[in-house]
């Protein structure tokens, strides 16, 4: 039961994480500002890394360097005082910024025309799935907000999570078939589809297309039954009943 619960939590965590990753990638594709992408659910335990962002002031796009946190609640249309420096890429990089009404900086004054503070990738306390926090999911007033995008862009972002889950499911099923997933015989039992080199199965002479119909006198009718029997007899010698070529 404990193994089943842990397996379920892991499976659901992967599904939720992949779902949110789809939202994140689609949002970035259509220009939606993603403020945070979290592994697990808050409270935040650790900031893993912080991508560069950008701010537009006086019609000039200014880079917010990687790992730079804006101290204050800056918003679209707000008057600010700021300083810049020239980065290694030759573009202006933000050196300092403060709200104009409380600033002590010596710099230029301008209104915020666009703000992407850079996505924070965080590790959170509840290890279950993840989340993508997008700007303005219900408020269309700020440039770069989800609600401010057109209908097709919003549909693309919202549908991307389910599409990502579908693609991952196809990938997992393809991997399972490639590795040789157990098959169930029509008359009961489990069909061996492949034998791993050097495995105990190869050592005792099991072959592909053998059907496991029993173990230590217990009938094996499906994959779950074989897995349960195996878990209950780990490290023990067992006698398998095999059907091969009708015998």
Explain this structure:
- With 247 residues, the protein is an alpha+beta fold.
- Strand 10 and strand 11 (218-219) form a beta hairpin.
- It has a five-stranded antiparallel beta sheet, with no helix packed on it. Strands 8, 9, 10, 11 and 12 form a five-stranded antiparallel beta sheet that branches.
- It has four helices and twelve strands, in the order αβββββββαββαββαβ.
- Helix 1 packs across helix 2 (151-179).
Task: Give the helix/strand layout.
Elements (H helix, E strand, L loop, with lengths): L1 H28 L4 E17 L2 E5 L2 E5 L14 E8 L5 E8 L8 E9 L3 E15 L16 H29 L3 E2 L5 E2 L8 H4 L7 E5 L2 E2 L3 H10 L7 E4 L4
Helix pairs in contact: 1-2
Give helix and strand order, one letter per element, not per position. HEEEEEEEHEEHEEHE
**Unreliable segments of 5+ consecutive residues:** none
Biggest sheet, in brief? 5 strands, antiparallel
* Rg, Å, rounded: 28 Å
Question: What proportion of the residues is helical, as a percent range?
Answer: 25-40%
For the biggest β-sheet, the strand order reads 3-2-6-4-5
Mean pLDDT, to the nearest integer, reads 90
Alpha-beta content class? alpha+beta
What is the tally of helical segments?
Answer: 4
Principal-axis shape: elongated
Portion of residues in beta strands equals 25-35%
DSSP, total strands: 12
Span between termini = 36 Å
Sum up the structure in keywords.
247 residues; 5-stranded antiparallel beta sheet; alpha+beta
């Amino acid at each position: 039961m404990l193994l089943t619960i842990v397996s379920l939590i892991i499976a659901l965590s992967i599904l939720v994480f992949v779902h949110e990753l789809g939202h994140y990638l689609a949002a970035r594709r259509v220009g939606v500002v993603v403020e945070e992408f979290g592994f697990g659910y808050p409270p935040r335990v650790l900031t893993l890394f912080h991508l560069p962002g950008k701010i537009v002031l006086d019609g000039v796009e200014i880079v917010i360097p990687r790992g730079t946190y804006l101290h204050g609640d800056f918003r679209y249309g707000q008057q600010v005082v700021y300083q810049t420096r020239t980065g290694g890429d030759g573009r202006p990089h933000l050196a300092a910024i403060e709200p104009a009404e409380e600033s002590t900086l010596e710099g230029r004054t301008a209104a915020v025309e666009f703000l992407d503070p850079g996505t924070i990738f965080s590790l959170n306390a509840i290890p279950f799935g993840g989340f993508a926090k997008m700007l303005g999911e219900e408020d269309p007033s700020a440039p770069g907000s989800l609600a401010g995008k057109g209908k097709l862009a919003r549909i693309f972002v919202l549908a991307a999570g389910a599409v990502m889950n579908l693609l991952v499911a196809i990938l997992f099923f393809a991997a399972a078939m490639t590795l040789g997933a157990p098959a169930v015989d029509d008359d009961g039992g489990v069909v061996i589809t492949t034998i791993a080199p050097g495995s105990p199965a190869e050592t005792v002479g099991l072959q592909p297309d053998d059907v496991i119909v029993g173990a230590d006198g217990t009938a094996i009718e499906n994959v779950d039954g074989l897995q349960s029997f195996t878990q209950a007899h780990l490290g023990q010698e067992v006698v398998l009943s095999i059907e091969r070529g009708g015998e």
